Amino acid sequence: MKPAMRRYQSDNDYWRIREFLREVLLINNLEQKSWDVARFDYWRWHGILNMKDGTLEDDVFIWETPDGQIVAVLNREAPGSVFLQIQ
Q1: Taking a C-beta distance cutoff of 8 angstroms, is the pair 5, 61 a contact?
Q2: Would you list the domain boundaries of the chain?
């Protein structure tokens, strides 16, 4: 099964990404090899809404399996900085 990439679309994606980040943290034995949920929340609520650092719709990309399971998320934090969260 080849994952398909798509852009962030709605608040439902936000909640699914948060769950994905929690799962990745557990898979990695609590080692932070990707963002934790708090950092993603901070970027959304402070970085985007207060600092005007882009938009979720333009700056978040999701890779999903055909059955809808998230396997990777790519997001920017600032111009020139991107982060890949991968399972």
Answers
A1: yes
A2: 4-86
